[in-house]
Design goal:
The chain is built from three helices and 13 strands, in the order H-E-E-E-E-E-E-E-E-E-H-E-E-E-E-H. It has about 230 residues and is an alpha+beta fold. It has one domain.
Length: about 230
């Protein structure tokens, strides 16, 4: 009896030496495969701002009442693209903070998070972005005067909240540097926080801004270096 039990224990021990790794593989491999697959197909928010016409360009301002052109404007927009392999769900752009340098002083507005709308998409402040597609988020609009020397910043629909408009209207007139901290959120993608800095000059017919592209590593460091140099 003792010899038989010893043989059984020896056999069980030898069987466990190869059975344990097999069981571990059957558990770990499917889990790892699911994690890798989820990472591989995840949606990716890419934000870009550059000198291309889709980000900063001229367009006529048309009256909704009679369809006539009432002015010319220069828009400033962020290009939001899905670089992942699945659709971005309910993407939304928020103004988190505004800082303005004007007349040798610094002015800050950080009372609340303000949701902004998409260009040519008045239906909702949120929208889905399919794989590879790109849509545009409005940041600022330069309203051009007829003589091109008395241009003003204009904030189209959706009109910002009253307290923000009071802040913007209280700024000293003339040349100023604006910094918008913008966070692009989505239900199923990692958010992107980007700085948008531009110089407004009433005598210039375009905005001078710092370009960036979150696709490339080190983009924030390069932006920071240029921002310090340009202020």
């Amino acid at each position: 009896m003792g010899e038989w039990l010893t043989r059984v224990l020896i056999y069980a021990e030898s069987a466990w030496t190869w059975l344990a790794p097999l069981l571990a593989v059957t558990v770990v491999v499917p889990f790892a495969a699911r994690v890798i697959h989820k990472f591989w197909v995840r949606p990716i928010i890419q934000v870009r701002l550059d000198d291309q016409a889709d980000c900063h360009g001229r367009t006529p301002l048309v009256s909704l009442q009679d369809g006539k052109v009432v002015a010319q404007v220069m828009y400033l927009r962020l290009r939001i693209q899905n670089r992942g392999r699945t659709t971005i769900k309910d993407c939304l752009g928020n103004w988190v903070r505004i800082r303005v340098w004007s007349g040798g002083k610094v002015f800050d507005f950080a009372h609340e998070v303000i949701s902004r709308g998409w260009a040519h998409y008045p239906e909702s402040k949120q929208r889905n972005i399919p794989r590879g597609e790109a849509y545009y988020l409005d940041v600022a609009t330069l309203l051009l005067s007829e003589d091109k020397k008395h241009n003003t910043l204009w904030w189209p629909d959706p009109v910002p909240p009253t307290n923000m408009m009071e802040f913007l209207h209280s700024l000293p007139p003339g040349k100023a540097t604006y910094l918008f901290e913008i966070r692009v959120n989505a239900d199923n993608a990692r958010p992107r926080s980007v700085p948008v800095q531009f110089v407004f000059d009433p005598a210039r017919s375009k905005l001078s801004f710092i370009p960036f592209n979150t696709r490339y590593p080190g983009w924030r460091w390069r932006w920071w270096w240029r921002a310090r140099r340009d202020r």
